[in-house]
Amino acid sequence: MNTTQELARYAIETRYQDIPEPVRRAAKRLMLDTLGCAVGALGTDPGIAVRRIVQRSGAVGPASVIGTGQKTSIATAAWANGRLGNVLDMDECYKVQGHHAQAALGTALALAETHALDGRALLAAFTLGFEVGVRLGNFFSPRVTVDAEGRTRGWTGLVGPGQGVHAACTAAARLIGSSPVELAHAFGSCAQYMVGRDWSRQWGRDVDLGTLKYADTGWNAQGGLMAAWHAREGVRGVRDIFDGDSYAQVFQGVVLDPVAMLENLGRDWYLPETSIKFWPCCRWIHYALTALDAVLRRHGLQAAEIDAIDLHSFPMIPYPRFADQGDPPNLVAATFSFPHAAAMVALGVPAGPAWFTEASLGGLAAREMRRKVRLLDEERAYDPAAWGLADKVLKVPSRAVVHARGQTFSAQSDFALGDAWDGAPGFAEQDVFDKFARMVKTLAPYSPQWEARSRELIDAVMGVDDMDDVRELTRLFDPAR
């Protein structure tokens, strides 16, 4: 049995009961977080666009667009929910290697609802989709590091989008009854839906990144679904896609490591290691933001007292978007701006869609605070030992220095809030619940009862494996209920 076939066999034949209880608990928590991110995005400009596109599609069907009351086709719902999950850039991130949860859940939820499947089927599909996504990343490239010249290594434009498509494909294949052979064929078709590297040559070099990021995560969800459907109908892509050099020929610089893809298959679980994001911005920013948040909290510093903020971190610059101190032209630009994220934390703006209001993007207080933020290199930024390579974790040594009250206050952090490894700033399951409750508040204008329903929603998701019919869950997310 070759690498492609072995991964497909694992993804299809692993049963719900084979997933350890701590992994299942982490998967439910991640599912809740992903749904919260999707709901929180609905009132943003990109979120409104998603709802309008669903309406324009003209498709009426059995699958729900989460938090909207819209019912549409399986494919459209998979796209919409996958897209919404990533809009705020507040969704999980696996070691800055990629996002897997939104595409896997977008597809799995649409299929499970349509076919009235039980919660165990949904949870297992979501979990195995995530696991395949991470293992694909291990196959494509080593963990992210920085070389002596400050260039990123171990990450390509292929990784994140590719993982999302395969994660969604795996989830879909399980729920439509695919065999391991059919999923192996579907993996070959997934290559046809992947975003390549060309975008990365320009991405980040312009202050205005546009309002669609480097990969439409909804397209990943829909692409994975289509690959699984095609394979069920006898249509296949490249045979044994992970056993040849197809990717190496198309994408220069990609490291293909089939051993890493299959390492400890069925014994090691990656989902519990993913990072929960407590701020709506690129994960690279969270390390310096964690240090800044610690300084402000420790010393009770108020915005009016701050004269300057120095952030010493991984210099993913020369990309000007990360360091530009001007008004972000749109939500996407804001999610990649160190000065904007630091300004929002310093001003005490609640993490979530509130970071992207007109006042937050272009208001005087936000503008003045962004101008006080300076981005500098951290002295240990290029030290592989400082990045935790030997410990198989991801550290990004970062420091925040705040000048206020005629004094200098500082804090250092190797990890970001939300990281799941020993030594990282602690967060509890309740913190994830609180984040979810904050996200669902955004729908209160649509339904006065919505905010009060957050506890019911949390209990439903955390108990999803006891549900006989996933439609019980999707009905709870209908704001008109």
TrEMBL record:
InterPro entries tied to this protein: MmgE/PrpD_sf, MmgE/PrpD_sf_1, MmgE/PrpD_sf_2, MmgE_PrpD, MmgE_PrpD_C, MmgE_PrpD_N
Q: Which residues form the MmgE/PrpD N-terminal domain?
A: 5-245
- Which part of the chain is the MmgE/PrpD C-terminal domain? 279-448
Entry's Gene Ontology molecular function annotations: lyase activity
One of the Pfam families matching this protein, by short name: MmgE_PrpD_C
Q: Which family does it belong to?
A: Belongs to the PrpD family.
Instruction: Kindly provide the name given to this protein in its UniProt entry.
Output: MmgE/PrpD family protein
Q: Record the organism.
A: Verticiella sediminum
